[in-house]
Amino acid sequence: MIAIIDYGAGNIFSVKNALDHLGVESKLTDKKEDLIAADEIILPGVGAFPWAMNMLKNSGLVDTIKEQAKVKPFLGICLGMQLLFEKSFEFEECDGLGLIMGRVDKITDPGLVIPHMGWNKLEYNKEVPIFKGLGNDEYVYFVHSYKAFCESEDNLYAYSEYGSKVPAVVGDNGFVYGCQFHPEKSGETGLKILRNFAELV
Amino acid sequence: MLAKRIIPCLDVRDGKVVKGVNFEGIKEVGDPVECACEYNKQGADEIVFYDITASHEGRGVMLDVVRNTAKKVFVPLTVGGGIKTVDDIRETLRAGADKVSVNSQAVQNPQLIKDGADIFGSQCICVGVDAKAIGENKWTVFINGGRIDMKMDLIDWVKKCEQLGAGEICLNSIDTDGVRGGFDLPMLKAVVDAVKIPVIASGGAGKLGDFAEAFLETDCSAALAASLFHFHELTVGQVKEDCRSKGIIVR
After folding, report:
1. Which helix (H) or strand (E) holds B169?
2. Is B64 tagged catalytic?
3. How many other C-beta atoms lie within 10 A of the C-beta of residue B242?
4. What does UniProt list as catalytic (chain B) (predicted)?
5. For the domain B5-246, what is the CATH superfamily, name and number?
6. Is pLDDT larger for residue A109 or for residue A153?
7. A43 vs chain B: nearest CA distance in angstroms?
8. Does this complex have an ipTM over 0.90?
9. Which terminus of chain A has a lower count of CB atoms within 10 Å, N or C?
10. Apex CA B71: angle with CA B69 and CA B72, to 5°?
11. Which chain B residue is nearest to residue A162, measuring alpha carbons?
């Protein structure tokens, strides 16, 4: 069973719809015991970083998330991916979960339409299991105005080009994965990535 | 590189897809969930449902359409029409929409854009704008499906939308809508130059080359059409193939 963390952020139903479609059992939850009992965990999220981090703190789940991400596959989506990093500078400096080294900051390349909204191509930086079965011409759906800056290339699994490199898939080389794009809104490509994630256990 | 988006739009009334010309002469043409699934197969980058139902019952039906589509179609879904309050936005997003499109309601109450963006994020607030030329490089904003001239300058309005937190502008030209002679390129250019947020071209697509023309002549992010796709004159796939052959990046 995959636990989808429900801390008041949007798009959780879309993630559940996609997992239902794939025949993968999942549960929306804000309870520690569900995260502990789950085989895998997904942290979705839409909105602002400080707000989301506050909601997570208020739900009392931060420590449980940090512990569980060391022992079972964990996927952060969009803002959920950004929360994996150490710090964000969205509105104000704010600490994240610190599961991946690096920070989150505004996309500043001049002349770009912001938000980075739409389908962009995945460029692979590393071979990891969640890319199983993907080709060289895969597009995924992004919508964000802030992006991650990984401290180490080692944590960057795939990126897309938008002015400069935008981290698309990141990870800690262990159980933790993050997608800046929305796999649940990225058609067949996104469904494949979610299926691969589900099959990590 | 970010791909240019091709977006089919489904005008829905009481749970049925309909299509009119120049906002008039409406006829019923199909089931919205089935249509959305078909567009998804063709490679649509997003799907827009535009609710032209006036009644309260119709709104409920529309939310069911979104709910059922969101279980089968895994690309972004936008719902426009009849969204007046923050609660309407919440209800629509909860039903499975990724974005809402606000139009007349935003003109009459611009705070709706700000409140929506503050609560749900700019990414889900698309402002639909209907405009008409009143002189060279001068356009005015209309509301109520093109019936009421607000005598409001288009460029001032789209800039204001951006400031209030809109994540995207869907620009519909009343002059070219339903005429099928191509998108309104001068209007499109003016709006793309005025804002930093993505702009969707709408109104006027009548043949294959019209989409590529909009992407080659302006920096718009996406192009939207309804009847052209709906009456099977063109598929989304054909449009993308034409764009690709002209060097435009599409998914």
Report:
1. strand B168-173
2. no
3. 18
4. 11, 130
5. Aldolase class I (3.20.20.70)
6. A153
7. 17
8. yes
9. C
10. 70
11. B1
